[in-house]
């Protein structure tokens, strides 16, 4: 499968936090969600992909190219959305359009005005008077108006109301009708990912814990509930994570068929949500 992002043995050290030998491939033509707890390294990874911060070592390729020689070519093909204000506060969207449009070969004014209308944004109001949600929408308009091949978003739905979040998911689905497009975005809203993501990358303390298709997560992982007395040193091995509550246990397994063979009707084997998978991988006590 063709890759749009390839990270190999990437290292970045901050005081008290580090990313060590991070390896990650993102497939072309799919929506990949990037999840992990607060402070797990999502923004740091995204900023390295965008060349906003430099890794200490390792290889990083976007569309098979490295930033060193090809940064301009790469940036032409990326739509980047993030919540920090990247604009001059006093400027309006109309001002920004005049500045940004000439920078991109594939800028499309019709797309720009369509999104302005769709997202109900004012053209002439200074960005400094925008609400948090309006800023995120403005960032989206500017990112989508140059027909990017790869859309990278750092928590795009943060600060957005549920109605607009739903519209945004629809917009993403429309964009993905073009099978050459790829989307990589971080979020804490796992229910959004269950609706639109093809792959989920999970990061914990700077380590990639898994990069699975949503089908693998839904079919291979299961939630098991039963009586605590069923768990001993041997049976414990069959589970990936277990939590106990009074006389009962709740556990995650990647071997639901084997669990059914061992325990039969003594346990309940259920579908597991992405939120529960993250909860277990983040370490339950
Ligand atoms: N410029 C920096 N200098 C020092 N430490 C930093 C810097 N940028 C990030 N960090 C640290 O790196 C860690 C990871 O931060 P990062 O923003 O990547 O997390 P995140 O997964 O995006 O979190 P959130 O979900 O809360 O946005 C944190 O401990 C943060 O304090």
TrEMBL record:
Lineage: superkingdom: Bacteria
MF-aspect GO terms: ATP binding; ATP hydrolysis activity
InterPro entries in alphabetical order: AAA+_ATPase, ABC_transporter-like_ATP-bd, ABC_transporter-like_CS, ABC_Transporter_VariousFunc, P-loop_NTPase
All copies of domain ABC transporter, residue ranges: 5-230
UniProt-recorded name of the protein: ABC-2 type transport system ATP-binding protein
Entries under SUPFAM superfamilies matching the protein: P-loop containing nucleoside triphosphate hydrolases
Native species: Lacicoccus qingdaonensis
The keyword Cell membrane is assigned to this record: no
Positions of transmembrane segments: none
Lineage of producing organism: Bacteria, Bacillati, Bacillota, Bacilli, Bacillales
Keyword tags: ATP-binding, Nucleotide-binding, Transport
Transport as UniProt keyword: yes
